[in-house]
Amino acid sequence: MREPPTGRTRKVHPYAWLWEPLEDDPTFVLRPMFGGRSAYLDGKLMLYFSAGEEPWRGVLVCTDRAHHASLLAEFPALGPHPILPKWLYLPETADRFESVAERLVALARRRDPRLGVEPQAKHRRSRRA
To answer: If I label 79, which of 12, 62, 72, 101 is the partner at 20 to 30 A Cα–Cα?
Structure first.
């Protein structure tokens, strides 16, 4: 016998509308990471969406430092993340957050070479008897 529904509704991430254009890509993967959602294309970590408290409320652009100057010139609303400075950060409080975030998603979709980092291999702990 099935249990009756609990009445709980599933909470939708406030930035889900941003990764929706990527969902039709066959290589798209969305994974939970540190309380947010990380978007992968072709196995590369491209964008991280976080709806926590500042400085974890916005979009992080996963990129190498060699691409920072170019991306900062094109997107003045970006800046190095205060805790993860290897990635660039678009805070939700930025002017034109929605339009800049949509442009960043479009860059990821087009596989702009400035976006994306290879995820680090997970280290497995050896089990001791």
So the answer is: 12
